[in-house]
Amino acid sequence: MRVCDGNPVHLGHHAIADGRWRIYAFADNALPGESSRLASWAEWMLKSSDSPVVKYTPAGTDLDSLFDIKVIYQQPNGEIDFGPDIPGIFKPRVGPFQLTDYEKVYAINPEADIFEARGIDQKVAVVVVRPDQYVSHVLPLEAVEELASFFYGALNSRAR
């Protein structure tokens, strides 16, 4: 379920053919704001020079212009507060007015838990989907070097 409005939305139905890579971060059991593997991963994605977002997003474009990054928390929608504790990578400012994109934060639907339905390890996972909607990589949140290496072979560094 999307946290911003409580609507049940299939992740694949939310993706559009816009040429962006999709990265889905399936969170550990911590809530936003708590120390967790997801929080460390999100910090790395925003600040590390090895992060694909930092390394390949063209200068002068929106944070999500090349990578559409979403998070799926293990808690039900009502337990996730879309506030300041949500990492910035999941609430980018976009468009000409730099408005916050609220549609990148998800929680489980208790009636159809995606972790159970898709057999996703509740110890966390990252799923990388190419722009043509092919699932091209699945790895744990801790594997940041592997994620960086994956994109190194596929993308050019951004213009500085």
Summarize the structure.
With 160 residues, the chain is of the alpha/beta class. The chain has 5 helices and 7 strands, in the order H-E-H-H-E-E-E-E-H-E-E-H. It has a 5-stranded mixed β-sheet, with helices on one face. Strands 3-4 form a two-stranded antiparallel sheet.
Describe this structure in words.
The protein has helices at residues 11-14, 37-47, 52-56, 114-117, 144-152; strands at 21-26, 67-76, 93-94, 99-100, 105-108, 125-129, 135-139. Strands 5-2-1-6-7 form a five-stranded mixed β-sheet, covered by helices on one side. The chain has a two-stranded antiparallel ribbon with strand order 3-4. With 160 residues, the protein is of the alpha/beta class. The longest helix is centred in the first third of the chain and has 11 residues, at 37-47. The protein has one domain: 3-Layer(aba) Sandwich (Glutaredoxin), CATH 3.40.30. It starts with 10 loop residues before the first helix and ends in an 8-residue tail after the last helix.
